[in-house]
Amino acid sequence: MRARQLEVFIAVMRAGTVTAAARMLNISQPALSQILLHTEDELGFALFERVKGRLRPTPDALEIFPDAERLSAGLDGLRRKTTDLRLGRAGLVRVAASPPPAMAILPRAFTKFRAQHPDVLLRSHSAPIAAIVDMLRAGDASLGVAMDDRLPPDIAAEVIGSIGFVCLLPAGHALQKKTELTLADLVGQELISYRGNTRPADELAHAARAHGVTLSPSLEIDVSISAVGFVQAGLGIALVDGLLPWHQFAGLAVRPLAAGPEFPISLLTSRARGLSRADEMMRDEIRAACFAVLDEDPAKA
To answer: Of 62, 104, 176, 246, which has the fewest beta carbons less than 10 angstroms from its beta carbon?
Structure first.
């Protein structure tokens, strides 16, 4: 029994007459009667007896009716789900991001997305870039946001912005009186910055050579957010990305690094996996959120 035949059978069972059933389905009586007769021919047994203008269900019809109703409810649910997926009203969106964009960009993107698509489940993963790549490949994340565009060939990287560096100073530090710092200002200071062989460390080393200075961090970190406690404890000046909302942390002063390098903010997807409609709409919100975050803070522009 096909979907249309199922629909006609249930309508006749509920309405009791061809006229009422045709009205329910908004089709003509001859069309409904033809579908019903064709269904009975295919099944090989009668579904209704014609008694005084009404259709009386046969024992066979009564036997299959509960199953038909369950199937119909399942089809209706499937139709609603596919419509919701097409319109981005249901489903799951999984985003993996390194900590700076996870803290600075995703809250804004998720807020805008949630206001328009409240039924979509959102899942956020904070991870280093190598783990983000693995998650995209495995399908554990549909979208990634990272501060690098040097990715393997199976990962597409769309650069959606760029960000420079800032210096995090312990409260009361002598350099706090300056509105911005240069690489030369940091020579001889106790530095907290990224470990070697990472994108930001490479960019800083290249810039230092170009300015004729040498920077030697005395404390290396993997992720910029971990610098906060060290700076608050007075262990040195942190040279980190300017994307994180550093001003929200007490006990440190934030100064932009003048004429310093920048590195990209990239939106990552797997070339081997397509995006759902909800994924595509989240991608648009991440782009817009990145633009807004960079535009509203002069230090990040």
So the answer is: 62
